[in-house]
């Protein structure tokens, strides 16, 4: 829709009574602005299928304006060269502001994404914690002195890259924005961040907090738009020197090609997964069942590292399945603003249809539908938590990422057998295992081909612990000290010492 009349802010009252003003414009050079062509698109609440508002859509000329603002901030302000503690203070202030606005931000996520308030509040808490963690790193990005003998002084510097393009997904809009912005800003870079078209609202609200926290105009630019238009322009833009993307593996491949076609941008990718969750005979069955719930049904199953392949050792298979089904029966699916809801809606009609199609595929392939497998109600994108048994490794529901509340469960006998099953995947993002034997835990963790291994827990994140994948699950790491390597480049300086003049 093209209009010059749509406002840059709309007042929204959330279903839980919280009211706030929602920005709708493009955040460029510290201000909200309409797109140059006045084009907008609608944002739909997935739990009600009702239109929330419209936001302005960035096209090529808008991306160019955002990149120019970022480049100017990098070249013509002291953001990249000042005492790094100043950047740290901005990030600390931003963390405080996220906490102060926590209920509004959580409500926006539940409205826009469909996730339960339980999940949204967890996202907001992780977001503020990560900004605070990055603030602590800001003045600790350093180089080293290299001893090459007395005739030279050799040392390294870690310097910012410049203008970064960042493209975030729709499953964790605010949290993924923090994972991208935190290390980028702590190291003195500037950015143009594109929101996911289905969930732009929380990142746009964050823009007001960025201004209040003291980030100079142009350092952070946040725009809304679609992958094939806005995202592609960012990926191809010659002034963008670093590209960070979180999303599907298929799109990640496209992003890499675009980066190579333009200017060989540095690229980090956090992509898909089909993660195994292994339950051994000596596991605490009740705790394992709860971790299986968190592993696959948290955030409506829309988690890249979801434990979507459960492997259970034969000695406890029947008992665990009973406990798992009982836990699912107590899991409330529905209105994300109901304080007792655990699983909200899927994020879009497209994702709902994709999940239901995979459920049909599973049935046709001969898998046993143990529970779930149906849409709930006629309005809102809700699906019952679904378990498939009697599966084999070549079934699509075992091999392909579904990205929803659908899990397969397979029986195994030995450690060697389950290691082979778990590693039989094109992905390698995460894995879980449950055992009371520390020797087994260490041995199996070492043999799993995954970027993260959780032991007796699942989907358990911390700002200081890196996250990222093996194989087709991506390149680079989010969080931890490793994330800062993504946003700096190493300069070696070697000075010849003239001893005759000393």
UniProtKB/TrEMBL annotation:
Keywords: NAD, Oxidoreductase. GO terms for molecular function: aldehyde dehydrogenase (NAD+) activity. One of its GO terms (biological process) is acetate biosynthetic process. One of its GO terms (cellular component) is mitochondrion. Pfam families: Aldedh. Pathway: Alcohol metabolism; ethanol degradation; acetate from ethanol: step 2/2. Gene3D superfamilies: Aldehyde Dehydrogenase, Chain A, domain 1, Aldehyde Dehydrogenase, Chain A, domain 2. Residues 32-493 form the Aldehyde dehydrogenase domain. It comes from the Eukaryota. The active site is at 270. Belongs to the aldehyde dehydrogenase family. Minor mitochondrial aldehyde dehydrogenase isoform. Plays a role in regulation or biosynthesis of electron transport chain components. Involved in the biosynthesis of acetate during anaerobic growth on glucose. This is Aldehyde dehydrogenase 5, mitochondrial. It comes from Babjeviella inositovora NRRL Y-12698.
